[in-house]
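re: ur question from yesterday

yeah so i grabbed the chain u mentioned. its 293 aa long if i counted rite. heres the sequnce exactly as i have it in my notes:
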Amino acid sequence: MMDINYELYKVFYQVAVSLSFSEASKKLFISQSAVSQSIKVLERKLNQTLFIRSTKKVQLTSEGETLLSYVEPAMNLIRRGEAQILETTSLDSGQLRIGASDTICRYFLVPYLSRFHKEYPNVHIKVTNQTSIKCVDLLENGSVDLIFTNYPNSRLGHSFHIRHIKEFHDHFIASRKYYGKLEHTTLSFKDLLGYPILMLGRSSTTSEFVHSMFQQHQLDLVPEIELSSNDLLLDLASIGLGIAFVPDYCVAQRLPDLFPITLQSTLPSRHLAVVHSEQIPVSHAARQFLHYF
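ran it thru and got these structure tokens back, copy pasting raw so excuse formatting
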């Protein structure tokens, strides 16, 4: 095992995330020449070039990107350990870090975040918006304590603790103004292919789910529009651009302008789940937040 000073990795991390020697020097409160020298020492010890330097910018080499993929989770884990030690049992300080999609944040998490903030006003709340699939990456690299995700989620393996907290159903939603003739009609999955389908993009659990439903009927779904926002899908459905596929918990406020399509085959339910890593201790603030569920 190489004997490399932790400070060298700390300098490497700051340069790698900012791609700037000057920015790293400001963050570390050391001179730019000291930053440059530290990187040279680390490169010499590893016998690898970690950065491509030019007068205009700094870039990671492929070896640098590989090293960052290991150093970043380690740095986050160290920060998390420091934060847990500094937290008090009364939650007079500390941080709650959550990852969730914008839909889950808006239609599910806001009341819980409001309650937590009122009860523990000195705890800093940080919410990072990503799709449910990409939230798993946040959890794996230590950027968040908890994620709230649609379930099933193909990225979740056995190294995570998964708790189901809400059951929901998905619906194909259409505008009464433009598709009113379908309101009292029962459609098959094959029938749906005759209409423009609006849905979330491929990097979402919702996309995984609906594509698998069509594949079970030996059908290939080719959406008319793929977006990253359920609210925008409903906006486009309301002006007649197609039939939107969305979870029921974000539809209630949009009725009676829109209606759910009746299907011959009932869609299975899904769940909202709260997830944390089984390998990394949960912070005191996160444990307290979990009690709400």
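noticed a couple things. The first helix runs from residue 6 to 18. also The radius of gyration is 24 Å.
anyway ttyl
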